[in-house]
Amino acid sequence: MDDTTYIASDKKQLKKILTKVEEFSNITGIRVNAEKSHLICINCKKKIIAKKKNEYVRILGIWISADGKKNYQKTLIEDKTKNICRMVERARITDKGARYIINHVLFPAIEYLLNDIYLNTNMCKKINSICLKMFKHKTGFAQTAINSIFHLKEGYNIFDIENRQLQLHIKNFNDRINRDDLLGESTKIRLRQFQNWIWKNKSIFDEDFIYKIKDNFNLNAMIINKAKEKSVIWKFTNKGNLIVTIPSGGKYTIKELWNDMGYEEQILNRGLRENGIMFVEQIMDLKFKNILSWQHIQTIRPKRGRPPGWYTHINQNKNFATNIIQEKLKEYYIHNLNIFNNLTKKHISTKKLWIAHKDNNELIIGKEHKKGKQEDNKKGMQQMKHYNIITKNLEPTSVLIPCEGCEINIENKNEECIYRIDKGKKDKIEIPVIYSKTSTSSTATRSFKNRIRMNVKDLYTATDLMENYMRNQEDNIMDNLSNTIEEEDIREKHKYQEIQKWIKCEDEDIVILLDIKEKLKHRKQVKVYTDGSLETTLTESIMGFGWVIPEVKNYERLTFRGNIKNFPSSTRAELMAIFTTLIVMPTKSKVIIYTDSTCAIQNMKTIMEKINTREIGIKNKNPILLQMINDIMKENKLKVICHKVKAHSGDKYNEIADSLAKIPGFVKGIKNNIFEGTLITLNYNKRFKHIMSSTKCREIDWDLTFKTKHPSKITSDTTNKEDSSRRSFAIKLLCEELPTLSRRYVHKPNLCNSSSCVLCDELIEEDNMHVFTCKRKGNIDPIKGLNNKFKEILMERIKKEESNIDIKVIWEHINEIDILNYLYEKDYTLSKNYSDLTFFDIIKGFVSSIITTKVIKICKYKKVKAKKIIIDAMEEFQQILKQIWKERYDKVIEWEVNNGITNKDKRIKQTKEKLNTNNQVVKTSNIRKRNNYNINNLKIIEEKEYIQNKQKQKKTNLEFFVNESFLNTNTYKRNNLYKIKIFSDGDMAISS
């Protein structure tokens, strides 16, 4: 129970209520928190002190202040993140435990505080950085390790707060926008307010319209904008189109004119928005020859004071502006007439309507007479009071005076002239008239008069055009044929729109769907087989769907297939197949759907149970797609029945649907999910560039590659230290994050003179692969031994699972795999440029699709068993690699101890000081001791000391290389004869 309010008229009644509450609480075991209880007294004599602007009040998970800022919530989120991560860092838990606390303890607490706030990118990076810093420490990764492997679903699957909050807000926003209660209405009001605030002729939901706003200026608008950055857009049905109103009617905006005139300063929306002006057509006369005076321009607020600055700038350069406008608009208006809604819209400048029309070549202007109280026997007629235009020097002015009687008067009174007009008359114009003393013409009258707020000459021209149009309509009866053709075009366009309002696809797909719909239009019952598929690689997931309708006519089968992206799941693909099927179904027909997806059938049942929109969003993972299916079923009055078909059971049409759903030619390259159609560039991580080529990418079995990195599922409950250690090593090996000397030299150059390997006589950089290719002063290529070992492991695993297969047959099949035929010594650096995978990639942990295919063939196409064999073989091989790494690690630790490098030295952050001649690093502590020397002497002394230290270090290294513990290792046993070469520069090399 939460947020309970008790209302009483006096103290006695309140005590009585609280007594009952206490009894009820004792019975049910509910405890009331007295510290959070408040007593509010109405008409109390005590003075109530308001909170300060920067003080916050909490209502559930929302903190509100008078100044409207959300700094306290942001601070609260940051502090909560730091506190939880600090506790996890000190605790003795495995990677799974740390991941569970971040994803399922910390993030729900943060999301609870995000109901009315959207964190910006910098804040999200800060929170992610705090979490990853702790997690990298717990898993033994360096702080410089790439973040993507921790967020990747196939890696450690750590949530990203930016994606989580976007997912949260999109779900909540979609729920609010589809509701019809107060929450839904308030959301729509906010959206309309923002649409008016930006003052654009584009909808805020348009895919290509990205706007810039301040953080938390309008939460709903910010959610829409962020969603569009991730290619998530909303498409509305007819009901949804009423959410926002987009200004329309013109072709050329004031902002576009402003830019074309070459003004550098940005025109403000406020001046245009407050006056309701957006298009150039609103400020031009009927023939685009002149810019209207400010008093003639129709605005939504009274014209007081001087005209706005933007109008003044344009009017001062009206000749230049007019030329630009005429050049731009001649493409849109063939007859060079301004048909904007100035002459047709409902003007609310006066209480009664003013109407102008032409009768017998005479302009007649009238005001609605006695609105609502007319007693006219003639139906469809309206009484108007006649007004005349005052002229000056034979030129009409804007002033209107009542007519004192003329031939159109229907009453006997001479004081006022009343006439009738047909309410359905098409050639009449509503005109703006204001009772004002501000003149808009050359008249000298300064008293209050009824004045026309538009150019009178334009009024005459408009009535002439309408009169000519009506005359032509009566004469040209033969135009009906062309009208019929236009109607057919409209009907064809309407058919396209019927498809486009449900789905966005290519024109050729719409033609296919329209053709199928035409062939099914007379059917009362339709059977259809549907299927969906999901294909996934490292960075991309594509869903395919297809369906087939059995013989319709003349043994013809109707089929359709397509692909969709975003929010990948096999159920979503199955539902998309059902949705596209329903688009082409005839109205009031019975649709029988056969599918092999149990999840799709369960989702369809939720719609057939006729639950409300809110429950669809809560109970299902595909609420938008299900809502669209629900809408099309209601609109077309379809009766849908779903039947389960067993997959791959030999059903003819189910197999056809399955083949249609498969994606042809999948993975031609890794695509960017955010910017569609562009390839991902990895310039910031050159170590992965060689593997991201299209050829190598296709040769990798990504599913098995990532499965071999996890001894157990990262989401499972079982965990131990060994499981965490094996996962950490496998992922480090794959991402080249092992703490080798090359990486230490980059981050701790004060401890290592170079990045060369200390265990071999060649000055080779010790990277991830050199750990396994290092000969340790021998002549035997270690990779050849690892290659043979891997083949033996793979053969043993196959023999264990398939004992009836002869071991010679297995060995022959394995030797047919080119990637495992390591015939001669190869250079790892050069192998990066190869177009195909090599055994070096197997060492890193990549699983080749060729190996997968070959093992499946050996196991007689038992895919599950074959995949288990490969996973077990790779895990056993990685254990051998881990043992090699451990032996190397022990040797390097021993070398560090002999050179006086301690763990404390590794943790200390020291300043790098580069020498002038040899670009080497010396310790800052030694520099500070020699502050009394001048700069030149200091450099000479430092260079001498550096050479002496280097010689001592080489001597120490030599003693280490020839000691008994090193020579008696398994790798270098019986190779204990070494020669020493001393070069002229003092460097030494050891050769066998």
TrEMBL record:
InterPro entries the UniProt entry points to: RNaseH-like_sf, RNaseH_domain, RNaseH_sf, RT_dom
Pfam families named in the record: RNase_H
Entry-linked Gene3D superfamilies: Ribonuclease H-like superfamily/Ribonuclease H (3.30.420.10)
Gene Ontology terms for molecular function: nucleic acid binding; RNA-DNA hybrid ribonuclease activity
Residue ranges of every copy of the Reverse transcriptase domain listed in the record: 1-64
SUPFAM superfamilies linked: Ribonuclease H-like
Protein name per its UniProtKB record: RNase H type-1 domain-containing protein
